Structures are given as C-alpha cells and as structure tokens.
Amino acid sequence: MVQKNRKAAVPPKAASPPSPKRRGRPRAYEPDVALGKALDLFRKGGFAATSLDDLSAATGMNRPSLYGAFGDKRELYIKSYQRYRDDARAASLDIFRQEMPIRQRLARIYAVALDIYLSGESGPRGCFTVMTAGSEAVADPEIRAMVVDALLQLDRAFANCFRLAKEKGELREGADPEVLAQLASATIHTIAIRARAGVPREELEAIVNGAIEVMVGKA
C-alpha cells in the first residue's frame, strides 16, 4: 500500500529583530521663545496672579516640561525678570555710552523707556521692576537683591551721564550728579507707573520734558 506523501514541514519563521527603542520626543519649543512668553504673562499679571496653567498655555509646554526647562514657578519668574533686565539694558546701553549732549541723551533714554512701558498686546505693561518685582521683593530675598541691584545700576548709569555733562560745562554750577541721577531714576519710575495706569504717551512725554528742564535747565 502506497503511503501518501506527508506535507513538508514549514520551518519556523525567524524571530524578528527587536525594534529599536524610540528616542524621547525632541523639544517642540524654543526655550528663548518660551521664556519670552512667560515674561509677557508675569509682566501683565505679576507672580501670584499668573498660574502654571496660564504659563503652560502661553508657552505650549506641559507642567513637567516647564519644570524640566526652567524649574518651578518661582525660578521661572526669576529667569523672566533677569531676561527683562537684560533686554532693557540692551535697548538703552548705546544711548548711555554714546557721545551726545545731556539733554539729548536724557530725551532718548526716556523715549526708549516709554517704548518698553507702553508695549503689550492687551495694554501697557509698565516696568517689571516697579510693577511686579518690587512687590515680590518684600518676602523674597533673592528677588529683593535683584531689585536693589537694578535700582542701583540705573542710578549709577545716570550719575555717569551727569558727571560727564558737568565736566563739559552743560550743567549749572553746584549741580550734584548723584542727586540728579536719583531724580532721573525717579522720573523713570513715575512714567512706568503712569504708563501702566493708562496715561497717554503725550502726557508722559510732558512729564519727561518738565523733569529734564528741572535737571539740566531750559534749552
């Protein structure tokens, strides 16, 4: 009796090589851009009124990503304030350093300050130092040190301008560069507050012009 041919055994399939491990998702954000978004929020609402959900929505980053990139909310606030200081310094550095009459120098410094204070998509935001960091400085030593440093740096920059102007004979006899510097800084602070309160630019410019007359005399 003829036996039927058995079906050839099918060899087992070779095991598939293990799939390469997927790497973590690349960052879908630019840290500098995200920090700028956080800065905008903190300038508008301050520290307490700006929630992590607000920051997450504005930056497009979830909370773990925010923590990984910037630390906790306080650290992000401090980094935002430092970014503000760096940007403000860069915007006015050349004006403080360039050779020009004191009246023209002051006018240009205040014009740049007003550009900064009146900026904002939803309205004027004023000065980070005056409007929000000054409040946080009461309870936070690190922020307080940053605020004091910002105020002193501004005073020193103005004092250097007035000392140079005095050497060139642009100031009246007996003018004290240190006192004039404090008046110049105080003018910066008042236009920052008034800008945030919605005072029109032309009124702020009138305040600036009056302050310049007090400091250096009429043109």
Order of helices and strands: HHHHHHHHH
Report on the biggest sheet: none
Q: Structural class of the helices, strands and pairings?
A: mainly alpha
DSSP summary, beta strand count: 0
Please mark out the parts with pLDDT under 50 across 5 or more consecutive residues, or reply none: 1-8, 20-26
Portion of residues within helices: 55-70%
**pLDDT averaged over residues:** 87
Query: Distance between termini?
Result: 129 Å
Q: Radius of gyration in whole Å, from Cα?
A: 29 Å
The quaternary state of the protein chains shown equals single chain
Q: Sum up the overall morphology in one term.
A: elongated
Relative strand content: under 5%
Number of helices: 9
Note down, in words, how this protein is organized:
With 219 residues, this protein is mostly helical. Helix content is 66%, strand content 0%. The chain has nine helices and no strands. The chain has helices at 31-45, 52-59, 63-70, 73-97, 102-117, 128-136, 141-167, 177-196, 201-216. α4 runs antiparallel to α5 and α4 packs parallel to α7. The N and C termini lie far apart (129 Å). Mean pLDDT is 87; it is low at 1-8 and 20-26.
List keywords for this structure.
single chain; 219 residues; mainly alpha; 0% strand; elongated; disordered N terminus
